[in-house]
Design a protein that fits this description.
Length: 219
C-alpha cells in the first residue's frame, strides 16, 4: 500500500474513532478514498486536525496551526505552512511575515484581520521552515479543501508560489501569475507574493500592493 493510501485509510480510521466507533467492518482499501468524509463544522474539523498524525510533520510540531478568522469570511488567505512563531502559538501568520500580512489586510484592503480567514497548505511546521513536500501537502490538503468548503469565501488569495502550486497544480512562476484572476472551482483565486518574500525583497511590495487593490475592487 502506498503512503498516500495508508494516510487516507488512517484518516478515515481516526475519524471513525473520533465520532465514537470502537469497531468497524473491514474497509475496501481500493475504494477507500471515496469513503472519507470530514465534518461540515469548523470546530469539529479543528478537533480532527489537532489530533492528526498522518505525516511526519506531526512528530516535530509543537502546535497544530489550524487557521483562524471569520468563519463567514468573503476573503481567505492561504499561506504555505507555519513558521517557528506560529508553531509556538498555534496561530497562523503571527511572526514577522504575519505582521506584514496584517498591515496589508488592514492598511490596504481596509478590513480588520479578524474579518478575513487565514490558513495554510500544511497545518504543522516543516522543520527549519523548509517547503512542505508533495506528500505532506497532499496529506494535509483535504483539511484545507474542507475549510474552504465550509467558509465558502468569494476570493482566495494564494500567498506565494508554494501555496499557488499546491492549490492549482500549476507551476507558472509566481512572478508571472501574480495578480491574475484564476478560476478555482466556483471561486476566484488570486495569487500574490508571500509576505516573507516581500520582507526579503521590499522592491516587490509595489506589485503586491497592486494585487491587493485588485482584490479590494473585486470584494
Ligand atoms: N508563513 C506561512 O506560510 N504561514 C504562516 O502561518 C506563517 C508564515
Amino acid at each position: 500500500m502506498d503512503k498516500i493510501k495508508k494516510a487516507k485509510l488512517l484518516k478515515n480510521l481516526y475519524y471513525q474513532k473520533w465520532i465514537g466507533y470502537q469497531y468497524i467492518d473491514p474497509i475496501n482499501i481500493e475504494n477507500n478514498h471515496k469513503n472519507i468524509s470530514l465534518p461540515n463544522s469548523l470546530e469539529k474539523l479543528k478537533e480532527i486536525v489537532k489530533n492528526c498524525h498522518l505525516c511526519d510533520l506531526s512528530k516535530t510540531r509543537k502546535n497544530v496551526v489550524f487557521g483562524e478568522g471569520n468563519p463567514h469570511a468573503k476573503l481567505m488567505f492561504i499561506g504555505e505552512g507555519p513558521g517557528a512563531t506560529e508553531d509556538e502559538m498555534g496561530r497562523p501568520f503571527v511572526g514577522r511575515a504575519g505582521q506584514l500580512l496584517t498591515k496589508m489586510i488592514e492598511n490596504v484592503l481596509e478590513i480588520k484581520r479578524e474579518d478575513v480567514y487565514i490558513a495554510n497548505i500544511v497545518k504543522c511546521r516543516p522543520p527549519n521552515n523548509r517547503v512542505p513536500t508533495e506528500e505532506e501537502a497532499k496529506t494535509c490538503m483535504p483539511y484545507l479543501i474542507k475549510q474552504i468548503e465550509i467558509i465558502n469565501p468569494k476570493i482566495l488569495v494564494a500567498l506565494g508560489s508554494t501555496s499557488y502550486r499546491y492549490l492549482t497544480n500549476d507551476t507558472t512562476p509566481i512572478s508571472k501569475i501574480r495578480g491574475e484572476i484564476v478560476k478555482y472551482k466556483d471561486k476566484i483565486l488570486i495569487p500574490t507574493y508571500h509576505p516573507s518574500f516581500l520582507l526579503r525583497n521590499p522592491s516587490k511590495k509595489k506589485e503586491a500592493y497592486l494585487d491587493l487593490l485588485k482584490i479590494k475592487s473585486l470584494l
